[in-house]
Structure prediction request, 390 residues.
Amino acid sequence: GGGVSVRQAQTKVRELIGAFDLDPNRVLDLIVDTLESEVTSLLTAKTKGGSKGNSTAAATSIGDLFAHAPTHATPVRILLGIIADLKRDSLPHLLGFKYANYAASGGGSGGSIGPTPPTLHLTTALLILHGLVDPAHVVKHLAPAVGKIQDQYEDHQDAYVKKIKKMGTVSLNAAAAASSTSNEEKKDDGTTAAAFTSNAAASTADADSTAIENNQVVGLFHALVEAGAPWDVAISVFAGIDDNTFDGAEAVATLHEPTGKAICSWVKRSIASAYDDKVKSIGKDLMRPSSNKASKKDKPSDVGQYSLLPDSVSAKTILTPSATLEDLSATLAAPLSTVIASGSIRHDPTLYCMLCRLVKTLVSEGEIDETTYSLLRTFLVPCMSLFPAN
Prediction:
């Protein structure tokens, strides 16, 4: 409410629990539901802005929404403060019950998982980023088990290896065999056995896509990336995979295209401040002074004041204008490795151009050391083969 501080809200909740002998776990559950409602309201406002023709609102990322939410910042901080004041040992279990209900809604054969709303993933991400819950404790309650991602990724890789091996192979008997058997295999409705095989393959692909889309570990990782979590926090959801050589982020970015795009947006937000300061914008000199003033006016100057995220998050992920090439490499080495290995960089050529221009500027300020060479060798040069205009 207006003028209510976090301390006052904490005191009021404790008084209500004591006065009415309320179950603290039930109170905590209601507070988490209210927090999710705030997140839902924030996303709804974004959707309405886009539906009214406001292209800026429609294009705003989740990370930008969380970084500047004037209407929601105060209630979210109060709710997070109340959660921090309550006994939080049961918080992973409460979240687990919510996830389990959505997982059970699948109801299909083979243990299929029902869809989980993005708002629950984003709410969990907020709790993780504010240090109110350990991601390792939450992941234990998600379905399917985190190891399932490795199985799906290996199946995906095997399928692509088989497809690659078939490329360039010519079967001289294929046409004759198809012609001689088409009449025998044709069904009453005119559909051939080959068509049935094709439909079955498409059905399997759709099932695999739905499975990865509804995978709750994938959803939580995607939400953490969208919210702008430090990379080490985001990939901590894969800590339960026994194989230390397996890269969960790379697997998810490969299997789930929206997550690959989200990682590209994560990198773009990370370099935006340094890029704007160090790289001269193409065509900037052609803009009228009034346009420049308008753009500065439209840019919020009080982003930190209305951020839903703790200050430590920006400190770990956002490159400052004074960043060096070593800073860029240290901060972005892991996510850049993911977007090149998964091929996700092909979705965002603008990001590639920004990185090239920023690296060129940073190289001109210093010397080409091993860090620079590594970035060129492992990312910038290999990426060129992934774009359609290669």
